[in-house]
Specification:
- With 763 residues, the chain is an alpha/beta fold.
- It has 28 helices and 20 strands.
- Strands 9, 10, 11, 12, 13, 14 and 15 form a seven-stranded mixed beta sheet that branches. Strands 3-2-6-7-1-8 form a six-stranded parallel beta sheet, sandwiched between helices. The chain has a five-stranded antiparallel beta sheet with strand order 19-18-17-16-20, with no helix packed on it.
- Helix 23 packs across helix 26.
- The longest helix has 22 residues.
- It is globular and about 85 Å long.
- The protein starts with a helix and ends with a strand.
Length: 763
Amino acid sequence: MSETTTQHTYLDELNDIQRQAVTAIEGPVMVIAGPGSGKTRVLTYRIAHLIQSGVAPWEILTLTFTNKAAREMKERIEKVVGSRANKVWAGTFHSIFSRILRYEAHRIGYPNDFTIYDTSDTDSVISEILTQMGLDKKQYNKSAVRSRISMAKSNLITPKAYALNEELMGYDTMNRRPMIHMIYQKYVNKCLRSGAMDFDDLLLQMFRLLYQNPDGVLEKYRSAFQYVLVDEFQDTNYLQYQIIKLLVKYPDSKENVCIVGDDAQSIYSFRGATIENILQFEKDFPEVRTYKLEQNYRSTHHIVQAANQVISYNDKQIKKEIWTDKDEGEKIKVFKCMSDNEEGRRVADGIIEQKHRYNLSNSDISILYRTNAQSRVFEEHLRRHNIPYKIYGGLSFYQRKEIKDMLSYLRLAVNPKDNEALKRVINYPKRGIGKTSVDKLAAFAEEQEMSMFEAIPHLQISRKAYNLMNDFRKLIESFQAKAQKMNAYDLAVHISKQSGILMHLKSDDSMEGMGRLENLTSLLDGINEFINDDELAEGEDANQDKSIASYLQSIALITDFDNEGDEEDFVTLMSAHAAKGLEFKSVFVVGLEENLFPSFMSMSDPTQIDEERRLFYVAITRAEQYLTLSYANSRYQFGNMRFNDPSRFLEEIAADNVDSAMPAHNAYSHEGFGTPRLLGNFKKLQPKKEAMLAIDPSTFKASPSHHIKEGHDVMHLKFGKGHVQSIDGERDNKVATIIFEQLDNPERRIMLRFAKLQILDEA
């Protein structure tokens, strides 16, 4: 095949705007690529076109965020230009910079054969420093310290600059870790003495190398890389962008840099990424040509329109209008659920319905949530329906370390002879019982043909080790005694505190640590749900048995399910963050409630709300044909029943794109937690009449909440006359379902202790 024919073929595969972005090879170029718009094709064909236009492959530097993306890119380029594709510098920021540092590190005081420290190596160094400084390792959690050091490096903040930064020092003091700047300095010194770099150093030391050697090294690599391309530019951090600018922005430079990305999909600020890089690019490169890939080849009309509507609410953005020539398709469905348990059931039922109605495979379907801890309830309901599933980018809920640790304590409270559970937690959280002592205990128990727990009083070891083991034995015995008197939830809360697990997890305020704490609280919430929801138990005596033994039995099938053989056709469960770059025929976006999605951590910061909205945008644009959104009026959180408003993001989708047969808005109210909030897209369909129903407060007298029973007719100051249909929950968490016939949507869920209801009769 001739070169002309090849060139004609690959360019003919592109639409007009894609072709312009591929062929504009000189000067700065910015490609804003909407979801499903063919971003990867444009990037790879642009590289192929550079080579076909006479650029030497080794003069092209392409920076990606995953090794997989770099490999796939080279494979696609090779189909156009042949083996020359292998000579392109294509890889992740870390792999490319590591390769350069292997030649040049001696210029900045490191050996060229430096060691690369992984996370466990870093933690080990930090732990050693904490010991040397005599600092409390619970207060100075090594994961949290590592996170702060990483943040500083990603923002080009040296230890000295850190110590002079009032904001950083104030934050550390507020979190009772005022010595982090000193730990940071000692960590840097130790790494340098060891000839080692961590992952952040591969970026930081690359910047130092170029910045401190402008005439030699920097000029060398500016000459070597005549064309620089960056994929997923919206995910770059401050340091990465500074390195890119060093390479391409200098006097007399042609500034041959091409960035490809989408500001609307910038969702990784917690990793240090900043949307400001892509928003600032046009100012940094005034000669830039911008190409917007706005045709979506993935999703149907209703999904694309919903995405446009949602993202339009963000202030800081590069304006674009995504469109598709695909059919309108199915309208978006919205599941309104009374509880998170009902949400799990309805999503599982919805999956079964879609599989039958649309002939979908399990692998065509994904459930997306804001936090990994939410997977529990969906795993449980999928398991009950024998629907195979896999957790993408993480472990199944019951296989996560903090969950297995907590379950091990619960197992010991029921059966202290459980050797595997004992070995897992005898020194967790750390209580000074070393591996050697545990090995001696295991060997002695085997020799005496007894359990390790039974063997503890008889073991001949040092007095200190014996006392520590005996204290652990007494702790488990106290849990055993409590298990005879407490229900599963009260016992689990007691154990989480007395074992030290709860405090240990709370001490880590890094993103990973907060996720682990969230998983533990989700487990406790699941146990609370177990004792309060008879539907979760099975068997004739299930309603009476709320013991920890009964709970452990109820989840055995779920944990066993994780050990079954690999199944090729499975429903995918993942966080919305993990879903970026993927697509499915059907997507369920769940937990769409205020303080969950958007996250409660974003509520005080408008820029964080904008990022949450971008995350929602990413989630809904994963769907090709079917999109279902769901929220729960109530869910257990931290042991209490919490009532939630629907997410503001639901209000931002127009009625024309939503199945109007679905329930229009949340059907509960509870004084003290805010009034019901109508979804904006249904306002025309569901006119609000509540204001017309108010009665004279002077004639109203609220009855004691504990007097209200099922069947009572009641009066509410705002909603008028109603009938108590049912009451569920216990003690202060009792919730009444009441029908107010004068309302458009008559059913309301009201927490009785806040209700202020007047009983009209004693029916």
